[in-house]
Amino acid sequence: MKTLLDEILQTTQSVPAYEAKDFKPDVDVRWCAGCGAFSVLSPVQRFLPNLNLPKEKIVFISGIGCSGRFSYYVDTYGFHSIHGRPIAIATGLKIARPDLSVWIATGDGDCMSIGGNHMIHAARRNTDLNIMLFNNEVYSLTKGQASPTSHPGQITKSSPLGSLEDAFNPASLALGSGAPFVARGIDKDRQMMQDLFEKAAKHKGFAFMEIYTNCVIFNDGAFEEYTRKGIREDHTLMLEHGKPMLFGKEMDKGVRLDGYTPVVVNLRDGEYSENDVLVHNEKDSTLAFILANMTYHESLPRPIGVFLDLERPSYESRVEAQINAEIEKYGEPDFDGLLKGKSFWTV
Q: Residue 2: pLDDT above 60?
């Protein structure tokens, strides 16, 4: 039996040979000069030709906030939705049109606050969506209030004496919600961002990418220790599947486990060698949680890259399978019969 997806794909026309410039619309990009979002937009436009899909098969949905303007700046179909609801809207679209490649641009306020409920349930369901969470640790569009990812002590317009709240850890939240693909990137590393988008696109299911994006106006330099040349090597752990977790300017430091607790070891003193260092495994969910929980430990490097990449059936594929099973059992749908039900009479 042909599925809805089979029928849609059968009518797909040949894909034009796109270049990055084909995904740049003729509009002015209205972000502040130096905003980290520019460094996300460029890798997205460069990677989109690699999807090998016609433009009408690609959709960018955004919420409210600085990230909300993203859907205007990619020459595909798009939807600038409402505060905290882009994932809910994208879920409906993906179920109705499973052939589409659906991307969501959202912010730490939009996604982690009012939209948090939608995020965790989309992750739980494993809807085939690609989430780009722009994390600048502050509400920027509303002029600099503390957000769910603002760190304790952070001075903002709504916390002039310093925030008293512990920050959300988006990667841990995504993993705890059942997301099978979880990654973290940094706006200034454009090639790494493009690689993450490629991996997310290949993943069939919910793909969550937290992206550190600098806000030059209200939280400038928030991620400087992970981006500034000369110090970033000592503060970031670049994750590569199957590779030992080494970092530092000379790659002479590593991460190993003391029980389930990650600790940093120095390979120069001779007590430990590369063989004692953890090897990254994107298929190990326990390790992914350990890495995500390293996020706010000052004595540990900040993990960057793919934490987890597992395969499990997507939500829309299960919806379609359920519908097809009912059609096979009861035949093609009869709307008139559905309205009348099993018992009806004429008055």
A: no
Alpha helices (H) in the chain, listed in sequence order: 4-10, 38-47, 86-96, 108-109, 116-125, 170-176, 190-202, 224-227, 285-292, 315-330, 335-340
Nearest to 253 by CA among 271, 234, 270, 240: 234
246-247 and 253-258 strand pairing: antiparallel
Tens digits of residue pLDDT in 174-193: 999 999 999 999 999 999 99
E-assigned strand segments in 74-206: 77-80, 101-107, 130-135, 181-186
**302-322 burial: b if 16+ Cβ within 10 Å, else e:** bbbbbbbbbeeebbbbebbee
Nearest CA-CA partner of 188 in 215, 221, 225, 214: 214
14-36: per-residue pLDDT in tens? 788 999 999 999 999 999 999 99
* CATH C-level class of 4-222+313-340: alpha beta
CB atoms within 10 A of CB 275: 8
Boundaries of every domain in the chain: 4-222+313-340
- Which of the two residues, 291 and 1, has the higher pLDDT score? 291
Rounded to the nearest 5 degrees, what angle is found at the Cα of 307, between the Cα atoms of 231 and 116? 100
Residue type, 143: K
Our CA angle for 221, 68, 33, nearest 5°, is 40
Give the amino acid at 316.
E
Backbone dihedral angles phi then psi of residue 144, each to the nearest 5 degrees:
95, 35
The tokens for 42 are 């460029």
222 neighbors 150 (Cβ within 8 angstroms) = no
Above 70 in pLDDT, residue 148? yes
The pLDDT value recorded for residue 343 is 78
Asked whether 219 and 163 are in contact (CB, 8 A), the reply is: no
Query: Please, are residues 91 and 102 in contact by the beta-carbon 8 Å criterion?
Result: no
Count the helix, strand and coil residues of the chain and give each as a percent rounded to the nearest 5: 35, 20, 45
CA end-to-end span of the chain, whole Å?
40
